[in-house]
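Record minuted for completeness.

…
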Amino acid sequence: MLDLAARLALSPVLLAQAVAVRRRALHLPEAAGPRRGKLGSGPTLRLRIIGDSSAAGVGVARQQDALAGQLAAMLSRRHTVCWDLDAATGATTRSTLQRLSHSDQAPADVIVTALGVNDVTRQLPVRLWLRQQRALIDRLRVLYAPRLIYVCGIPPLGHFPLLPDPLRWALARHARKLETALARDLAGSGGALHVPFNLPLAPGLMASDGFHPSARLYTLWAKEMASRITADWPLIQSG
């Protein structure tokens, strides 16, 4: 209740700051380059990455420097990686669900999702967030029959250089609420694993817009995901 009262009291300031941030923010393009491919040798690993602008590689010029390209390259040291990227700037959980309603079925071993920031900025209620995330996971299972789904956590918006206080505080608080609820919800679900975003968000690791990852941060993210997928490979094979 205290949190709600504080946000209501600050609502005129938060709205003004949100408008100002949108006006002055740099609008960086999505990374250029192929969004699917095949590379490496060894056991086949079919990888699909689904998400928002961070998954689309905003902040770097080329997909090979973004999450998808770097993750596929890292996994290709042990596997023949058939990878596919389905991501769009501004994507929310709801818009992703709508986009996937037109997708064809295709098998995948591993799916990585990166969504949540745009749900936070739209102040999506916790219960609706959980309902949409559950529906998304169900849809992914129907479409791709994955062995494992890795649900990447929401980055700590409290460390985004672009955001001023108290807007930064309000968004960070709401992000933690969504994140905590999702982690709890996924704790007992088989085949869908929550991956907290525990990477540093120092200004030097952010893109020039102060909102998206740089190539260095994408590298750290890809290393984290590659390590988890490699460790879980026996489970993936037997799934």
In short: Residues 75 and 226 are 6 Å apart (CA to CA).
